[in-house]
Design a protein that fits this description.
The protein is mostly helical. The protein has 21 helices and 6 strands.
């Protein structure tokens, strides 16, 4: 898994979100201020900042653009090597993703023994979505891993509440300090913490209730402390001058006001609510639409999850509910996923399965529980399903972002079913430059690129075909698949009158005109 993720990190150019996080991390290091990217808490970017500090790029403190322009200026306008800087920014997330694999193993081993732990670890290590997002300087993999760690430690608190509940609180706080989408997990983990203390405590109903409440309180206090600490690490004075923070009214506004977090965190939640009100476009199974579909994430997960993992995690979930000795673990493995998925399904941004990365990760733990049945055929089936996931994953190497399972045609077909971070997130600009240089030297290139990279920085000389009449566009037309999925007007006319001749990374298509 380490080899695959590092290889992927070396070969991919910045995705759409990465320059924002890398630029913000550099600003944390040099200016110690909470200015950029307030819609996400600081911890994930502090993790990325470890790699940025090692790369030691030149930082222009006088730059005054927005967060997107900041990242591009750091990568392409400040004399830095974007390949080197991005690799170092991604390495801390890769290390975290590998460590979370050990949590998957430990959690499944606690439930189903060492064979179950190894089965779960194998499914995790070969899961294309985990590999794809674990090798990027983004926040989805760290948030998922911290949540998994918190749930596992709350489970272990059944035996030793004093030892594990503070650690679980720290892990929950780390998730909350990385991405605000972890907030719906808080009430679930508080209840589970109380259950763990109740089950592991001394007899007596009143005493057990007090112990359960105290356990939940410890979890909450430590989590809140971690969130505050993440902001204090950036700026000990917590200076915050908000700009254009939307007002949030009603019940949501009241809940935001009650959050026991720094003002910058609460304003970040308000910004997230404001983003939810915008008319985003989605793309599912060839249909372009405005708004969101409640079934988008389940449908996208069906496409993006290996068939073996779908089968194994589904069977493992059934086993958790049906098998008596596993039943106590069912609320810990299944309920957090259900609550988080239900919340994500209500969101307005149908951009990719990264918003539900916790589903295959917890699914791997559930799949490992099949080995607890102590039947040779079931254990053999679990191992066989793990092998099918490994084969499917290795066949996709090194193109993990556009992965689709074999039932939906594999990575080459994903762009016809999904868009954005499911397939084309701007990651193949460097590969496109290599392709143009080796196969199409000297040709006139027209480019419609969806991403944060700067084509000229990779030696691509191209013009925008949408800026001139259709009759003037001759030569090679290069279009990001997400742009093609949303094509309307002139771009749609260009694509209809062009002939496909090549593709790059299953995310960019080349046409001849």
């Amino acid at each position: 898994m380490a080899a695959v993720m590092v290889t992927t990190a070396v070969q991919q150019t910045p995705t759409i979100d990465e320059p924002v996080y890398v630029g913000t991390a550099a600003d944390y290091l040099h200016e110690h201020r909470l200015r950029y990217n307030p819609e996400h808490p600081p911890l994930g970017k502090l993790v990325i900042a470890v790699g940025v500090a090692v790369a030691d790029p030149h930082y222009d403190a006088a730059f005054t653009g927005d967060q997107g322009a900041l990242g591009r200026h750091l990568l392409y306008g400040s004399g830095n090597d974007p390949w080197r800087l991005m690799l170092w920014a991604r390495l801390p997330v890769i290390v975290l993703t590998l460590l979370f694999g050990l949590v998957v193993f430990a959690f499944a081993r606690d439930l189903a023994g060492p064979v179950g732990g190894l089965c779960a670890l194998g499914l995790y290590a070969f899961c294309p979505d985990v590999v794809a997002h674990g090798s990027l300087a983004t926040l989805d993999a760290p948030t998922t891993g911290f949540l998994l760690t918190a749930v596992w430690l709350v489970w272990r608190a059944r035996r030793s509440p004093r030892g594990f509940l503070p650690l679980a609180g720290a892990a929950l706080g780390a998730a909350l300090a990385t991405k605000m989408s972890a907030l719906p997990a808080v009430p679930v983990l508080l209840v589970l913490a109380g259950v763990s203390v109740w089950r592991g405590g001394a007899p007596g109903r009143r005493r057990a209730l007090r112990r359960a409440a105290a356990g939940a309180g410890v979890l909450a206090v430590v989590a809140v402390a971690v969130v505050w600490t993440s902001y204090l690490l950036v700026d000990p004075r917590l200076r915050w001058a908000p700009e254009q923070v939307p007002a949030v009214h009603g019940l949501r506004g009241l809940l935001v006001d009650l959050l026991p977090f720094p003002p910058a965190y609460r304003d970040g939640v308000r910004i997230q609510f404001g983003l939810e009100e915008l008319p985003w476009q989605g793309f599912l199974f060839g249909r372009l639409y405005t708004g969101s579909l409640w079934y988008y994430l389940p449908a996208a997960l069906l496409v993006k999850t290996p068939l073996g993992l779908l089968a194994a995690s589904g069977a493992g979930g059934v086993a958790l509910v049906a098998v008596r000795r596993l039943r106590a673990a069912a609320p810990y493995v299944l309920v957090p996923v259900g609550v988080l998925l239900a919340t994500a399904m209500l969101g307005a941004r149908d951009f990719g399965t990264r918003y539900a990365l916790f589903v295959p990760v917890f699914g791997a733990v559930a799949a490992g529980c099949l080995c607890a049945l102590r039947r040779r055929r079931v254990s053999a089936a679990a191992v066989a399903l793990s092998l099918t996931v490994a084969i499917s994953s290795l066949r996709a190497f090194p193109y993990y972002l556009p992965y689709a399972n074999e039932a939906f045609g594999g990575p080459a077909a994903t762009h016809r079913l999904l868009h954005d971070s499911n397939v084309d997130w701007g990651q193949d600009l460097g590969r496109l430059a290599d392709r143009l240089r080796t196969r199409y030297p000297g040709e006139r290139v027209w480019l419609v690129y969806k991403g944060s990279g700067v084509p000229s920085a990779y030696g691509i000389r191209a013009a925008d075909p949408r800026a001139v009449p259709v009759t003037r566009v001759h030569g090679l037309l290069v279009v990001s698949d997400s742009a093609a999925a949303k094509a309307r007007g002139r771009l749609a006319e260009l694509l209809a009158s062009s002939r496909q001749v090549d593709e790059v990374g299953h995310s960019i298509t080349l046409y001849r005109r």
